[in-house]
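Example 3.2
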Amino acid sequence: MRTSSWYSNFAKATARFCGRPRTFVLALLVIVVWLVTGPIFDYSDTWQLVINTGTTIVTFLMVFLIQNTQNRDTEAIQVKLDELIRATRGAHNALLDLEELEDETLEAFRKRYQLLATHARAEMGRGFQDTGTPEA
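Structure, written as C-alpha cells:
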C-alpha cells in the first residue's frame, strides 16, 4: 500500500485538531478578545478589518482541508460498500462503482430500486414480509 502524501497527513491532522472542543473554545476566545478590544481601538475600521481578514483566511484554507478529508472518507466508504456488494451472495455486481456512472444511468438504477421499495411496502400492507431478494 502507498503511504499517504504530506498533504493528506496534514489534512487529517488538521481535521482532527480543528474538530476538538478545545479548538472551538480557542476560536471563541479569539472572538471574545477581539470584542473586548473594540472600545480600546474605538471600533475602528482597522479593528474590524483584523477579524474579517483573519476569519476569511482561516475559512478559505479550511474549505480545502475539509474537502480533502471528506473526499477521502467518501472514497473509503464507497470501497467498503463495493466490497459488501461483491462478497454478498445474490447481490448485483452491476451496482459496484455506481458513483462513477452518468447521471441518467444512475437515475435509472434509482428508479428501479424505488419501484422495488414501493412494491415491498404494498406487500407489507397486505401482511407479507418485505424480506427476500427480488430481481432488480
